[in-house]
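Revision sheet: structure tokens.
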Amino acid sequence: MATARSGKKGRLLLGTSSWSSKDWVGTIYPEGCEPRDYLPAYARQFSSVEIDSTWYRSPSEYLVRKWDRDTPVGFIFSAKVPRSITHEKVLIDCRAELSEFLGKMDILGDKLGPLLFQFPYGFKSSEFETLASFLSQLPSGYRFVVEVRHKSWLGDPFFDLLERHQIPLALIDHPWMPRLDRLTGPYAFVRWLGDRKGIEKKTKTWDRLIVNRTEVLKWWAEKIQGMLASGVDVFGYFNNHYAGYAPGSLEGFMKILEDNPVPKPS
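Predicted:
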């Protein structure tokens, strides 16, 4: 399954939010596949993945080297920044934690993709100056992304701040936030999240689609095709909670894109 495209148009890298679901054994993973073999099996089918586990803690050097060994040249890892930075210290006095995290992720070399600052629902625009100060001190040489889940942020001061630092706003498909296609950096970062609480009332296993997202994905396809046609690279990741089965959502989205080719650059 080809999920990376390149050329004069922007490059598209799609994947899922994590690769560790045991419910994918018998679907995209072969029967009997052990957890240690999930990532190699995943990387034979997809070109990128978002690492969810780094939100809980910085990974060990051993683990990052295993990720590198388990994936081919050209594979891209995006990753969440640890919650100790975004949720516990909320950007205050966290330079050591960020340095430790970046040092571990540097092991991936060319496989290292965007790093996501996913802020909690209670992180409001009243923290504007805290965020502004933090972004001004970020080290160069990395691709960072900012995700907010409180609508108070969504205005020109916030967008202008991200644009000054050339940091993309994570474009999320989430029931509490409006769908946006605002580009504030040199590439786009899309996350199809869905309603975690709502879908967990319908299923506890993640091996089939149970919500039809076709019409919404057509909207996303149009926006992303426009970005690609403009030469913008797009990273996008599907969560199981989006429709019940992240690989199925990804496959459906790829079909929509194939049915609507990227227009020629103007």
